[in-house]
Fold this sequence. Notes:
By secondary structure, the protein is α/β, with parallel strands linked by helices. The chain has two domains: 10-58, RecR Domain 1 (Helicase, Ruva Protein, domain 3), CATH 1.10.8.420; 82-203, Dna Topoisomerase Vi A Subunit, Chain: A, domain 2. Helix content is 40%, strand content 13%. The chain has seven helices and seven strands; from the N terminus they run αααβββαβαβαβαβ. The strands form two sheets. The protein has a five-stranded mixed β-sheet. A two-stranded antiparallel sheet has the order 1-2. Helix 1 crosses helix 2 (27-38) and helix 4 crosses helix 7 (191-199). The protein starts with 9 loop residues before the first helix and ends with a strand.
Amino acid sequence: MLNMGEYVVASLKNLVEKLKMLPGIGEKSAQRLAYHIIGLQKNEIKSFVDAILDAKTKIHFCSICKNLTDSEVCSICSDENRDGSTICVVESPQDVVSFEKSGGFNFRYHVLHGVISPLNGVGLSDIYIDALIKRLEANGDVKEVIMATNPTMEGEATALYIKKLLKRFDIKVTRLACGVPIGGDLEYTDKMTLIRALEGRSSM
C-alpha cells in the first residue's frame, strides 16, 4: 500500500481516508482526488459540498417501490402510462437505471436494497421483501413478478425465497434468462445482453 509519509499534513491524510470510503477508490486514487480537491477554488468546493448535502437531505426511498426519489412517490410509480401488471424486482437503484437505459420495457420496479446474505450479516429484515409482499396484497392487478436479482449465490437464493413467498398469490414469477453471466452485476451488463435476458426470461 502506498504510504503518504509523516510529512503530509493531518487534514490531507484525513481527506484521503474519507475518500477511500467510497466504493472503488483505493489509496492512490484517493490521494489523486484529494490533491485535486485542494486545488479547487473555494466556490467550487462549496458547490461540490452543497450538492452532496442537498442530495443527502432530499433523496429518500419511494413509498411504493423503494427506489430513490426526492418526492413521496418516484416518477416511475407515478407514471400512469407504466404497465402496473408487471413488477421487476431488483437489488439496487443502480439496477433500475440499467434497465431504463436499455429502453423498450414499460414495467414498474421494486428495489430490495440488497440480498439475503447471512455471511455478510444481511437478513430478511434488512431488505425490502416485506414491502413487496404488502404491495402485492394491496394491488390485485399485478400478474407477473420478474426476479432480476444478480446471478450470484446470494441473488439466486433471494429470488428462490421470494418465489416461495409469492406462491399464495395468483402471479406468474419469472427469472432473467442466462444472457446475464453468472457472477456478473446488472450495473455493468451491456444493453443487448440485458434486453436478451429479459426477452428470454422463463417461469421459476
